[in-house]
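>> received
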Amino acid sequence: MMQEKFFENKKAIIVLVAGSIVVLFSMGIRQSWGLFFQFFENDLGINRTQFGFAIGLQMLLWGITAPFFGIIADKYGSNRAAFLAFLIYILGSYILYIQPASNSIFVISIGLLIGTALGGTAVSVPISAVGKYFSDKNRTISTGIVTGSASIGFFIFPLFTKFSNDTFGWHSTVLYYIYFLIFAGLCSLFLFKKEYVDTTNNSFTRDQTATKALSEAFKHKGYVLLVSGFFVCGFQITLVATHIPGYIQQKGLPDWTAAAILALIGLFNIFGTLGMGYLASKYSKKILLSALYFLRAVVLVLFLFLPSSTFTALGFGVLFGILWLATIPPTNGIVAQIFGTKYLATLFGIVFFSHQVGSFLGAYLGGYFYDNFGSYDYAWYLSVLLSIFAGFVHLPIDEKPIVRTA
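>> returned
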């Protein structure tokens, strides 16, 4: 029996490399905005509720626009969708670079424009572009590689941002971000479109429209459960990425600890996403997701209730990093496994919208609880409860491919 190749052709290699670069820069920059909060507070008069709202809006717009960029990607090509999104990303960053001390302009730049741009540059479009070039057996591994490249961005950018902010100032750091985004935008042009070829000999699959695909998905209980569970992932990672610097400050730990936590999350997320991508090619994806969310609850409880120290904080960065974006390969894999790849970018974009609704609440409520109660603790407690909920909600999902008949 002939062994299946990992790469079907040279285009698959190019798209995998391009997708990895796009996600590395887009997600790496997005991960680092929390390290600017003191500069925005001092120079622009942005308090933590306003900052949390702007980041929350960024997450929400990311989720709202992801399905639309997914539709563009499925119809016209991921390269066109991602390149358009990078132009918006650059515009939003440039407005942030030149803006006066204005809360409304701050919200427009970092919230509205950058949030919209993330819908086409981060996760859903690049990962779906890559996923279409790989078989069911290898898809979670390839998407694990792309997600792992985001981890490299998570590791590099917090360290770079901390150094650049301290050495050159936050304005110069944002300018460097713009240069990085121009490079990533050029790389996004290599996310070549792959025309869908129906191998099922099923007219209902061949003639299916995007509207019918969405209708079919929302009638599937497993898809609805997956949408519900991914909400929790968004709440947790955005709460951490946005407010861990403020929480570290609240606990009286050294300022460098926050950047170190974010960098460790990025570093160990590489192992988590690659490992989960491999495991998801061998074992039940829903069981892996359920176990992951239960483990997140355990890690959060340990972080909150162990004595505060740099050792505890760095340990949290390592453990939560392993679990950080490890949700993506099995979640994307379940969508492709049940519904096929014809409308993968569209259907995963909807799942990702739920993730971003959670992200909005994680960013906003973290700042709201702090400004009103003087502590982030209530946001952390809510995060633990949601993690337990997500652990249970994935268990009833039916992972079998859908059968399309009249």
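>> The radius of gyration is 20 Å.
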